[in-house]
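Run ABC-2 type transport system permease protein through structure prediction, thanks.
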Amino acid sequence: MLSLVQNENMKIYRRMRTWILLVLLIVFCCLVSFIDHYDKSNSQGGDWRASLQQSIQDNQAQLASPDLPEFIKEQMEDSIKISQHSLDNNIPPVQNTMWGGVMTLSGLVQIITLFTVIIAGDMVASEFTWGTIKLLLIRPASRTKILFSKYVSTLLFSLLLLLVLFLSAILVNGILYGFQDVGLPYLSVGANGVVQESSMPLHVFGTYALKLVELVMVVTLAFMISTVFRSSSLAIGFSIFIMLAGQLVTLFLMRYSWGKYYLFANTDLTQYLEGGRPLIEGMTMGFSIAVLAVYFVLFNVLSWIIFKKRDVAA
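Sure, done. The structure for ABC-2 type transport system permease protein is below.
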């Protein structure tokens, strides 16, 4: 099994396309960090205390509006408490530190997903496109082991991209903002309404870990699609279309209660961080995990069944 995984990794990393994707990811990371840092420097002028005081005044003025939804009021009240706690304890807001930049770059997980989908959509379909599937099947390894090795290699590649993003985000934003705030606490409002301090590195790591769940689900879907099509270009194109259209469909299904069973309504688990409001009423962290688990098993079972029964006589 280990030799099969090594063989699949060799197929991935010996292609120029793979290294181009890695370089593009680092370039995107640098560009987004520089632009974000430039915008913050121009808008805040470097005086974070004055900026927080102005933010408190603006939120208090908006709270006076009778038409403001209740959940928006709660978010503003929490924001006021956190801002006041920062002023009282001389804690700069996370946006003005390296951790703010690292959190901003967590949005680039969508780029990682796109890059990994390109690899995942090609893993099985390309073997049929080039006719190399016959060379794999004449080996003593079973079809199950061959498919599993391809899936593991794809997941390892996605994990590598996420690790590159995380380390690049820390390095680039550490250079831009400085590493002096590495021990900055993460501020949140507890159930009792009191501001709590926790570990910022753990919070950032947890956010990226939840993003990994979304990445694994989309990659698993793309891998299943790769087992369906014989054409690698068709498999990649269809996988990218589903990934991009999935979020648009989610916005449409938000109005229906049964929309909470849709895959892409549950992939972003960060919506539950710090008591966040879910996309659809009735959704919870446990519910989304259960739905994702069902989809995960379904996609892998379908991949296995299709690959086991695929006719390679051509």
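The chain has a mean pLDDT of 81.
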